[in-house]
Write a structure and sequence with these properties.
Blueprint lengths: L4 E10 L18 E2 L9 E7 L7 E3 L5 E3 L12 E4 H11 L5 E5 L7 H13 L7 E6 L6 H6 L2 E4 L12 H13 L6 E7 L2 H11 L11 E5 L4 H18 L2 E2 L3 H6 L6
Parallel strand pairs: 3-7, 7-8, 8-9, 9-10, 10-11, 11-12
Antiparallel strand pairs: 1-3, 1-6, 2-3, 4-5
Helix pairs in contact: 1-2
Protein name: 7-carboxy-7-deazaguanine synthase
Function: Catalyzes the complex heterocyclic radical-mediated conversion of 6-carboxy-5,6,7,8-tetrahydropterin (CPH4) to 7-carboxy-7-deazaguanine (CDG), a step common to the biosynthetic pathways of all 7-deazapurine-containing compounds.
EC number: 4.3.99.3
């Protein structure tokens, strides 16, 4: 029996028009925001944030400051709220308007893989939603072939150097599963957070050389930080890494535009 419930982070599907205010968290009378990162930065999109993550990330920022995960509200399933697949489909159908892009993020969405597969199948069966471009944002530690087939873009964001669990060769195998499953142009991106030369070195020495990148997926780096000030301090490291390694620099528009605010 397919799982019919998913657990959402507090913001759930966002941003939506508030029942009382008539406005979204961006102050607009219609739903949607801009994708802030990666190849589709600037693309009008609706987001679903699932609860639950299998990593606990912290980074060392400029001057030795500790920077924690920028979505702590999505770490634990116990902090989420259950929503049936039919409820989610109804909300999406009513909120999309002119939008054509949906982003599924977390937390780590693959910790709820069974329910995620059910949701994706329901989206593809909906006359209103079936042509949506769907991006899946994942940390790359878990793989599901059904999910891979059902989404248009997989955004892999390995963060192992920032976790208490540390680096594992098993994660390289999982990344390769995603790379092998998404070989068409613009179907996968590797997106890394860089806040130090050490971050660059790990990407260049410990991760990329162990992957088969024969289909040349885009490799993007973005500055570390959940506030505009933190981005300003770490951006030089990301810029230097991009130029030195011939990677692509990408912004974090959501932080630049709205700061460290959930639901934007």
């Amino acid at each position: 029996m397919p799982t019919k419930t998913l657990y959402l982070a507090p913001e759930g599907i966002f941003p939506l028009v508030g029942r009382t205010s008539g406005l979204t968290s961006l102050g607009l009378p219609f739903g949607g925001t801009l994708q802030g990162e990666g190849l589709l930065a600037g693309m009008p999109s609706l987001f679903i944030r699932l609860a639950g993550c299998n990593l606990r990330c912290t980074w060392t920022g400029h001057g030795g400051r500790t920077i924690a995960c920028d979505t702590p509200q999505a770490l634990a399933v116990s902090h989420g709220r259950g929503s049936t697949i039919s409820e989610l489909i109804g909300t999406l159908e009513g909120a999309l308007g002119a939008l054509t892009h949906l982003v599924i993020t977390g937390g780590e969405p693959l910790t709820q893989a069974e329910g995620l597969v059910t949701l994706l199948k329901a989206i593809r069966q909906s006359p209103t939603l079936r042509l949506l471009h769907i991006t899946l944002e994942t940390n790359g530690t878990l793989f599901n072939a059904e999910v891979a087939k059902s989404v248009d873009l997989v955004s892999l964001s390995p963060k192992w150097n920032a976790t208490p669990q540390g680096f594992s060769s098993r994660y390289i195998h999982v990344l390769q599963c995603w790379l092998d499953a998404k070989v068409l142009p613009n179907s996968l991106q590797l997106k890394f957070v860089v806040g130090s030369k050490e971050d660059e070195d790990q990407i260049a020495n410990d991760i990329l050389p162990h992957l088969n990148l024969c289909h040349h997926p885009p490799i993007l780096v973005m500055p570390l930080g959940a506030t505009p000030e933190e981005l300003r301090l770490s951006a030089p490291y990301a810029v230097a890494a991009a130029i030195r390694q011939n990677w692509r620099f990408c912004p974090r528009l959501q932080v630049e535009l709205w700061g460290n605010r959930a639901g934007t």
